[in-house]
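Anyone up for a design puzzle?
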């Protein structure tokens, strides 16, 4: 099958959408987000439909990047699908549901007629295979997932299942575990559960531990962020590594991950190479970046320990993702300050670099990044949001 990019048109602005709609074809428009794994699965389904249903145009739009269109159509979650004919909305679909998307897209292509049961079933089977990566079987059973998890845990002595990677954590809790391991100079295998929904869900059952990150040593669960942080403070984490991996635990972990430390020690001295001459940064540019960072730090150190950088205000959110975070915080009776990044382009761009987090909203507690909409929503659903934020506030208030 051709790639998603070849079959599904990307919409980057309201003007792009107007041009696309002027073509006259019925349109299936997918609102997606970079951090949402189900969106990637539904992209594969949409690409298959684009190949099979030539009477419709399939498009996708990054919901957080093209705010005006997201707000125009009242989209507050991803994945989300809008079905348009003659520029008018004729149907909607929320969530990752390949059979429903297939049925609705087929009906749209047929001018509104209901797809036959046999046709829909065949198409559903086809797109289900596409969503699964083209395999012959359906969803992998828990035994298959457990086998993958056991392989990871048996191959590397130290494994962190986290949001993001060791180089670019996608939540504050994952970042703190990475920081704790780096402090002890322990190399580890990181598994980005945002890129693997099967592992993300299966590991919760495997470990009987509902949240992420999760740290394992020699196949045994150590715990999540709070436990790891506490063990670092008491010296218990280093003692655990010595007990499980031996006194040379750092070398053992490094060798397992890739042998980088051993190879570097044994390798001959490299030949001399020219030292690149750094390109000087204009003083005005450097001063401006430093000024933005200081402004961000001042906002994060304000009197209210909980700060939300969002689009719009709590009273009038300008995107569905910001609205959902506001609603989650209010439902937990958490007081917070907010900053409208739509009113300040310097902060909007500077905060992405400051936090190494590319999207909005962003929630902070005492200057520490908690995460964005997906993380806050998941914490709320798991009953962890209120207790976690209050615990962070309390811990950071204690000298």
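Challenge accepted. My sequence:
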């Amino acid at each position: 099958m051709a790639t998603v990019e070849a079959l599904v048109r990307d919409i980057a602005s309201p003007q792009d959408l107007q041009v696309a709609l002027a073509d006259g074809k019925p349109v299936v428009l997918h609102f997606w987000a970079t951090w949402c794994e189900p969106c990637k699965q539904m992209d594969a389904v949409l690409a298959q439909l684009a190949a099979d249903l030539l009477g419709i145009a399939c498009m996708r739009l990054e919901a957080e990047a093209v705010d005006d269109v997201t707000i125009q159509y009242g989209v507050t979650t991803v994945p989300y699908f809008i079905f348009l004919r003659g520029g008018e909305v004729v149907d909607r679909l929320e969530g990752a549901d390949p059979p429903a998307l297939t049925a609705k897209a087929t009906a749209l292509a047929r001018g509104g007629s209901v797809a036959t049961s046999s046709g829909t079933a065949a198409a559903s089977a086809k797109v289900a295979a596409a969503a699964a990566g083209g395999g012959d079987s359906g969803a992998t059973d828990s035994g298959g997932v457990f086998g993958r998890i056991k392989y990871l845990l048996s191959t590397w002595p130290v494994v962190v299942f986290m949001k993001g990677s060791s180089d670019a954590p996608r939540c504050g809790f994952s970042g703190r575990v990475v920081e704790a391991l780096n402090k002890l100079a322990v190399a580890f295998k990181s598994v980005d559960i945002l890129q693997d929904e099967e592992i993300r869900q299966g590991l919760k059952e495997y470990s009987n531990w509902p949240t992420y990150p999760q740290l394992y040593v020699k196949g045994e669960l150590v715990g999540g962020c709070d436990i790891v942080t506490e063990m670092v403070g008491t010296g218990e984490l280093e003692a655990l590594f010595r007990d499980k991996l031996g006194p040379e635990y750092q070398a053992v972990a490094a060798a397992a991950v890739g042998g980088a430390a051993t190879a570097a020690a044994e390798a001959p001295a490299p030949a001399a190479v020219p030292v690149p001459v750094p390109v000087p940064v204009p003083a005005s540019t450097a001063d401006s970046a430093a000024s933005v960072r200081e402004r961000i730090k001042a906002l994060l150190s304000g009197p209210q320990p909980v700060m939300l950088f969002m689009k719009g205000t709590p009273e009038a959110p300008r995107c569905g993702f910001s609205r959902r975070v506001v609603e989650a915080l209010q439902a937990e009776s958490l007081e917070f300050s907010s900053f409208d990044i739509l009113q300040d382009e310097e902060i909007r761009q500077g905060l992405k670099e400051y936090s190494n987090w590319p999207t909005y909203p962003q929630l902070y507690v005492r200057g520490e990044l908690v995460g964005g909409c997906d993380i806050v929503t998941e914490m709320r659903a798991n009953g962890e949001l209120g207790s976690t934020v209050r615990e962070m506030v309390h811990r950071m208030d204690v000298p």
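A detail worth pointing out: Residues 113-142, 259-279 have pLDDT under 50 and may be disordered.
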